[in-house]
Write a structure and sequence with these properties.
The chain is mostly helical and 132 residues long. It is 65% helix and 0% strand. It is built from 5 helices and no strands. α3 packs antiparallel against α4 and α4 packs antiparallel against α5.
Length: 132
């Protein structure tokens, strides 16, 4: 029971925090991401993939349905974010002495953890789903 409660807390906290970034992009568009992609010689339409990693993935994780798939979408999103926007900060410390990429790291490693652990009993998919 405690393990399942911990999985629920992890899923909801990481999912909601990531989803807020997705909601911002739904409201304001993905132009900035499209520009970063173009700067790396990639097609701008790939920017729409952020909706998979910041809206679809977190929603799946929060409700606990195809949780592992949702978490993998979030992991992919964060790896692209690291590559496009944060490589220069990878080995940097912030003003308070912590890793400059604490938030991004929490999203990445939280999503990896969810993908490895699955949703647990307190989920829409239950514990028997292969991808849950």
């Amino acid at each position: 029971m405690t393990d399942d409660t911990g999985k629920l807390v992890l899923r909801v906290s990481v999912g909601v925090l990531m989803l807020l970034h997705g909601i911002f992009k739904l409201q304001n568009g993905v132009g900035g991401i499209a520009g970063m992609l173009g700067g790396h010689g990639l097609p701008a339409f790939l920017a729409y993939g952020v909706y998979l990693g910041e809206v679809v993935g977190p929603l799946l994780v929060i409700i606990g349905l195809f949780t592992r798939v949702g978490a993998v979408l979030m992991v992919g999103n964060m790896l692209v974010a690291f590559a496009l926007a944060h490589m220069s900060e990878l080995f940097s410390l912030g003003k308070m002495g912590g890793w400059a990429l604490e938030l991004q790291g929490m999203f990445l490693f939280g999503a990896i953890t969810i993908a490895l652990l699955g949703a647990g009993r307190f989920s829409a998919g239950g514990i028997n789903g292969r991808y849950n």
